[in-house]
Amino acid sequence: MFIPSEYARPEFLVDTSWVQEHLNDTNLRIVDCDLPDQFQRAHLPGAVVQQDHYQKRAKSGGVDIYNTEEFSIFAEELGIDDDTLVVAYDNSMGLYAARLWWALNYYGHDSVKIMNGGWRKWLREGRPITAEVTFPIGEFKFTAESNSTLIATKQQILEDYKNPDVVIWDVRSKGEFLGKTTRGNRRPGRIPDAVHLEWVNSVDNDTHVLKSASELRAMFKEHGITPDKKIEAH
User: Phi and psi at residue 43, in whole multiples of 5°?
Assistant: First the structure.
């Protein structure tokens, strides 16, 4: 899929050229992870759009992830079943595509990839776009089974944040890390001893393409984020 093999897990990404070649694959579901209003600007042919940036529990109003039943409904409404290959993209440097990627993996669906460079790369390369809205046709069955190893609980963080073999990685903005920006949180600030490296530093600001493996390794090493550590990000 034309992703450099220097990455430890290149299969998590897919290149725009591969996506264009496979637009008409019957078992492929392309998900535009920006908001519906942005989706109306135009999108990839055949793409569907999720109704929210977050896979959150609407009934509670919180940002905790859907339960298994809710997530199954969410996936099926997008036309995703147990055998679907999902390609996620956005125009937000991969932020919301990565959220969908993680949520699908959390519920046991690892046949999902992020289109490297997203909408910006696709558009700059002059690849086909449309304003037509696609509605999934057929019946879809998604079996959601949560994987607790992909999430850190509050208790786990409390036990780990002083452990020298664990890195608590704060990926938020500098303002949030310093407690100057609350974003609605009741208690501004950070977890003691957390390492700060905002997520945007992992992506090229102009192209929206993930930085090279060598750049990422060097940057992570500077912040003590190394393969010998257990990483817990928030």
Answer: -165, 180
Are 41 and 27 in contact, with CB atoms under 8 Å apart? no
The length of the chain in residues reads 234
Domain containing 215 — which CATH number? 3.40.250.10
d(CA 57, CA 66): 5
Give the per-residue pLDDT at 58: 62
Q: Are residues 116 and 177 in the same domain?
A: no
Residue 129 lies in a domain: no
SS (H, E, C) the chain: CCCCCCCCCHHHEECHHHHHHCCCCCCEEEEECCCHHHHCCCECCCCEECCCCCCECCCCCCCCECCHHHHHHHHHHCCCCCCCEEEEECCCCCHHHHHHHHHHHHCCCCCEEEECCHHHHHHHCCCCCECCCCCCCCCCCCCCCCCHHHCCCHHHHHHHCCCCCEEEEECCCHHHHHCCCCCCCCCCCCCCCCEECCHHHHECCCCCCECCHHHHHHHHHHCCCCCCCEEEEC
pTM above 0.85, yes or no: yes
Full domain range(s) for residue 16:
10-124
Dihedral over alpha carbons 203, 205, 207, 210 (to 10 degrees): 0
Per-residue pLDDT of 168-192, as tens digits, reads 999 999 999 998 988 877 889 999 9
